[in-house]
Amino acid sequence: MPKKEYDTFVLGDPAMVPEEKETELIVRDLTPADRRYKYRSAYVTALVSKDESKYPDRLWIRLGKGQLQEKPWSIKILKELNKVPKG
Fold first, then answer.
1. DSSP per residue, 48-60
2. Of 17, 26, 46, 70, which alpha carbon lies 20 to 30 A from 78's?
């Protein structure tokens, strides 16, 4: 099965994103089965790592103004949360 790809926006320093700990974040699905749902956002609990091969899926990091970071991270989505994140 091919890797799924997601992206997320990081408003501060990407180095401050907790690695290898359960983290709540908003991700956008870049590779849905149905193309009509590309960029669908979901609020999830996930494990993330700067090591691209640590977890099964790929996570692209974007800075606050949308600048795409050069290297992808890896992500393992544990569950999709059914709530609105605090702003």
1. EESSTTTSSEEEE
2. 70
